[in-house]
Write a structure and sequence with these properties.
This protein has about 350 residues and is mostly helical. The chain has one domain: MetI-like fold. The protein is built from 16 helices and two strands. It has a two-stranded antiparallel sheet. Helix 4 packs across helix 15 and helix 5 runs antiparallel to helix 12. The radius of gyration is 29 Å and the shape is extended.
């Protein structure tokens, strides 16, 4: 009798429609959809266009017309032409602005992570520029820096004479610093908020353990806060440096790359869409990608070396925190006995 029942079970056909409507089938379908659909979108809109761009970089071509295979010539031209690789020198202005921005953001984030009167209002004001479109910010600062407009008016209120002030967007000694300051103003609030979130996640008992050792605020910052938020610090620096290498919105909108403000992306845009040298522009994009990869790897190695002792210091303070907890528990126990 048992054998007959087993035979009937084995002969029962698999019903796909019933399985698809079951709870298990629905879960499998949802997992497959959430996996395949993003991968398909990445394939269609990212990886295939990127592969095509790599292929274009080996051709002398326009958007329309015949193509001529030139091999590595486009890559050699990137390094030979002053308007291509030489434009990367302007990234140093934005890198300097990014470092200043990160230091200031970390300093204020450390202060605002603790109870400060009006701190939430200040955070909101500082974060607001990040919510504004980069194009809109470009137009705002284009009028801000224009001769005789907002910035010059403010300086005249402070006692400066208009004739003694430079042309903020035309003078090549200062115009790139002006554009870098625009990027600092826009991204400062974002970095500050990220630092605040990381600092507030640090265990407060670590500060108590440090106080027991007589550590001042600066020592607490060096030995507790900085090692604890090293992941966010590394991430923000990598994003800032890579963003500096690919600066585009501010110089394109404010100056259109004139008067020596054409960054690598601005020159690449001009070569691709004005001169229609698609192969050369594609090679420029690949070269920049390789430079960003190299900078990212070097930065990770650098911070791995800088924070090499962070784990041991963190464990030291954790041990002190455990000792502090044990002392508190012992004190409570003695009070209970008494």
């Amino acid at each position: 009798m048992a054998g007959t029942v087993n035979n009937r079970i084995e002969k029962q056909p698999f019903q796909l429609s019933k399985w698809l409507h079951s709870r298990k089938g629905q879960r499998v379908l949802i997992c497959i959809a959430f996996t395949i659909i993003p991968l398909l979108l990445l394939l269609v809109f990212t990886y295939i266009p990127f592969a095509e761009m790599v292929k274009f970089s080996f051709y002398d071509m326009r958007y329309t017309g015949d193509r001529e295979f030139v091999g590595w010539q486009n890559y050699l031209d990137v390094f030979k032409r002053d308007d291509c690789f030489g434009a990367l020198k302007l990234s140093l202005y934005y890198c300097a602005g990014a470092i200043f921005q990160l230091v200031l953001a970390l300093f204020l984030a450390t202060i605002l992570s603790f109870k400060v009167k009006g701190g939430n209002l200040f955070k909101g004001f500082m974060f607001f520029p990040y919510l504004i479109s980069g194009i809109a910010i470009g137009f705002i600062f284009k009028f801000f820096y224009t001769r005789g407009f907002v910035f010059d008016t403010i300086l005249q209120w402070c006692g400066f004479q208009l004739d003694n002030l430079p042309y903020w967007l035309r003078d090549q000694r200062i115009n790139n610093w002006s554009l870098a300051a625009t990027s600092v103003w826009r991204y400062f609030g974002q970095n500050m908020v990220l630092f605040i979130g990381a600092i507030m996640s640090v265990d407060a008992q670590l500060y108590e353990a440090a106080d027991l050792d007589g550590a001042n605020k600066f020592q607490q910052f060096i030995h507790i806060i900085l090692p604890s938020i090293r992941t966010i610090v590394t991430l923000n620096i990598i994003l800032s440096i890579t963003g500096s290498l690919s600066a585009f919105e501010q110089p394109y909108v404010i100056t259109s790359g004139a008067n020596g403000t054409g960054t690598y992306f601005v020159i690449m845009n001009e070569i691709a869409h004005v001169s229609q040298k698609v192969g050369l522009a594609s090679a420029m994009a690949i070269v920049l990608l390789l430079i960003i990869f190299a900078c990212t790897i070097l930065q990770k190695l650098f911070f791995k070396y800088v924070f090499r002792d962070a784990e041991s210091e963190d464990e030291s303070y954790r041990a002190k925190r455990a000792r502090l907890k044990a002392e508190k528990a012992q004190a409570k126990a003695q009070k209970g006995v008494a």
